[in-house]
Amino acid sequence: MKDLEHRITEILIKMNLDQKVGQIVQAERQFVTPEAVKEYHIGSILSGGGSVPGENRPEDWIQMNDAYWAASMEEDDNHLAIPTIYGIDAIHGNSNVKGAVIFPHNIGLGATDDPDLIERIAVATAREIAATGIDWTFAPTISVARNDHWGRTYESYAEDPDIICKYAPRFVKGLQGNMGEEKVIACVKHWVGDGATEHGIDQGDAGISEEELRRIHIPAYRTAIEAGVLSVMASLNSWNQVMCHGHKYLLTDLLKNELGFQGIVISDWDGIDKLSDDYAEAAVIGLNAGLDMFMITDKWKTFIQQVKKHVEQGQIPIERLDDAVRRILRVKIRFNMFSKPRPALRKLVKDSSCFGCKAHREIAREAVRKSLVLLKNEESILPLHKQARILVAGKNANNRGHQCGGFTIAWQGVKDNDSIIGGTSIWEGIKAVAPNAALSVDGSGKDADPENHDVGLVIIGELPYAEMMGDIRIAGLSKSKKMSNNPDNKSNEENKTSGFNTGLSYKTAHASMPIMGEGPYGTHLYLHELHPEDLSTILNITNKGIPVVVILICGRPLVVNQELEASKGFVVAWLPGSEGQGVADVIFGDYDFQGKLTFSWPRFDDDNWNIGDENYHPLFPYGYGLRYKKEK
Ligand code: BGC
């Protein structure tokens, strides 16, 4: 430890102001060249969701990362050789890259209640990331989503912190492990209270007491820090009207001093922008509050100028800048970045046979099997017979894009089979084992015929979305709200706004990424309102006297009373990812169900129960999930 700090000091002494300020910048790849990385001493680069090089093959990523790394390591009179690190949202597998294995989103993993599986998933994910020459993933998300309207509910393992506390250290260990060539830097996010915002508004305000913040939202960070997590991402939400990005108490006093976090606190995507109308002031507030590295899209040159100026003028103490740089160097040294070979020469890059490999697909398929939650099984309609004449219908039956959800290939996800290379759609998995199954011609189930079909299997639910695009907002909630960046919580007319934000930064910086719809996703959690076609598909089949089993693809619990009523069997598959075969493994009885709800299931739209609430009475409680075998 002493040696480590001594080594950092030796590097710090050699660094001039330009080099220090460059080190705290993380620029988006579309806005920075390898030459600029050297010229401005850029400490890190990232890909926003769907921001991909070349044809998005592993070799394109390796070539790009190798060029950035090489530029950062060219030492001369103006530049010190400090390896730049590349970060990405590999939040369910290396999910931006074509051909990667896509694991279920966190909401499904929560239902498995299997920490060993979580660690194996993290190990496999780290290998697929390392195989593309990337060093850092902005995962795991350890939010505790408390309101199902939130568009990021699926990134959360549970509405209750217990499981998240068990998972966080195992995921961190699986990613970082021995810090060797098969490992990547983990980042727990978003600090803190992102899942506590009023009405589940993304980037909104968490109006909760400190007692609740500490009881529900902070414990998982404690376990991740104890497991040695090297980075934490600040959240774009505010806490009692004060933005987390400018919150010295949360970032410095609590996270660093009280919890003893020694790694990098990174800002979220252009996260300082809303701290002040004056960008220079925003940078000063963020750095002084305790942010160490700044995720910036296009304005990083302005940021550098302003931070330099304000250090020279004394508004940013040099000690604070030095501390930020020290933390970044500490992570780079601990992660052995100075001794690792250049990306193109790393072990898994040279032998990339692990990328998208069968062994990883098997782990993902196991996760799918274990994540399925059986809500209803009238007259033991499940398991289905493999020889049965099954009519498979519904818009999510044969669409690998739909079953992967957001943060897959594109920021908002994709809506076809071809973009997801490898794996199987749920239909493809069924077809492989049930010779008499047939796919409804147009998906609507109108071709159901009691002469030809014994049972209907209807695969329905949500379409992909990410972040605020997935919010469910009742009318009137999209209005901006005044927020303060003032940690003393004094009202401030100059404060920037929050609330629904598809503002400039997203529109311009994610410009090259396909945005599907403008969001929010809808106004209520009722599936029959969000997707009336789903109930129609069920009824098209049941009206012919054929019983139906429903498989629901969803990123959160939805109100499905009518769909439940119309079907004999009902399975929640969450967002299972690329290995749809795992669904067939269970519905035909080769494996039993074992998934249990980690989100209480609502009867009504505003019926937002969380386990532990007073007078708790959801439709299906936390922990619910039927099995074939009678439980003792
Ligand atoms: C999200 C983060 C993500 C970052 C980088 C932001 O919009 O809030 O979770 O890591 O983008 O893509």
Feature tags:
single chain, 632 residues, alpha/beta, TIM Barrel, Rossmann fold, 2 domains, five-stranded parallel beta sheet, 22 helices, 34% helix, binds beta-D-glucopyranose
Question: Any overview of this molecule?
Answer:
This protein is an alpha/beta fold and 632 residues long. The protein has 2 domains: 2-354, Glycoside hydrolase, family 3, N-terminal domain (TIM Barrel, Alpha-Beta Barrel); 372-468 and 520-587, Glycoside hydrolase family 3 C-terminal domain (Rossmann fold, 3-Layer(aba) Sandwich). It contains 22 helices and 17 strands. The protein has helices spanning 2-14, 17-23, 34-39, 58-72, 106-112, 115-130, 161-176, 210-217, 219-226, 248-258, 279-289, 300-312, 318-334, 347-350, 358-371, 400-404, 426-433, 504-509, 527-530, 532-542, 561-566, 581-587; strands at residues 25-28, 44-46, 85-88, 136-137, 187-191, 205-206, 231-234, 238-239, 242-243, 264-266, 294-296, 373-377, 390-393, 438-439, 455-461, 548-553, 569-574. The longest helix is centred in the middle third of the chain and has 17 residues, at 318-334. The relative contact order is 0.14. It binds beta-D-glucopyranose. Beta-D-glucopyranose (BGC) binds at residues 48-49, 89, 138, 189, 268-269, 467.
